[in-house]
């Protein structure tokens, strides 16, 4: 494994902070039915996998780090939008 620069460490820290948002959205929403909660949890897992893949991209190569971060954040935003829709339907 290679040594990370300060900027790449910031990328990793940012991805780590973003990974907390989706589970907190579901837990604070108060979705009551098990079926709605299952769909929401599935979307949380998709968002976590997207962010994890972005983190791996940041760790693997400095040339790919910015692109991995950008793709991970775009995927995370898409998951947030879908999760907000699911939570508004479940409520």
User: What's the order of the H and E elements?
Assistant: HHHH
Work out the helix count: 4
Distance between the termini: 45 Å
Identify low-pLDDT runs: none
User: How many strands appear in the DSSP assignment?
Assistant: 0
Strand content: under 5%
Q: Mind telling me the C-alpha Rg?
A: 15 Å
By secondary-structure content and strand pairing, the structural class works out as mainly alpha
Draw up the topology in text.
Layout: H1 6-18, H2 21-29, H3 34-60, H4 65-90
What does this protein look like?
The protein has 91 residues and is mainly alpha-helical. It has four helices and no strands. Helix 2 (21-29) runs parallel beside helix 4 and helix 3 runs antiparallel to helix 4. The longest helix has 27 residues, at 34-60. The protein is elongated, with a radius of gyration of 15 Å. The mean pLDDT is 90.
Would you summarize the structure shown here?
With 91 residues, this protein is mostly helical. 82% of the residues lie in helices and 0% in strands.
């Amino acid at each position: 494994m290679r040594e990370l620069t300060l900027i790449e460490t910031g990328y990793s820290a940012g991805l780590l902070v973003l990974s907390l948002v989706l589970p907190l959205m579901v837990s604070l929403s108060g979705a009551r039915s098990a079926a709605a909660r299952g769909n929401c949890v599935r979307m949380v897992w998709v968002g976590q996998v997207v962010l994890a893949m972005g983190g791996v991209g940041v760790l693997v190569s400095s040339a790919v780090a910015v692109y991995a971060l950008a793709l991970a954040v775009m995927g995370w935003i898409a998951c947030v939008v879908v999760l907000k829709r699911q939570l508004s339907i479940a409520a």
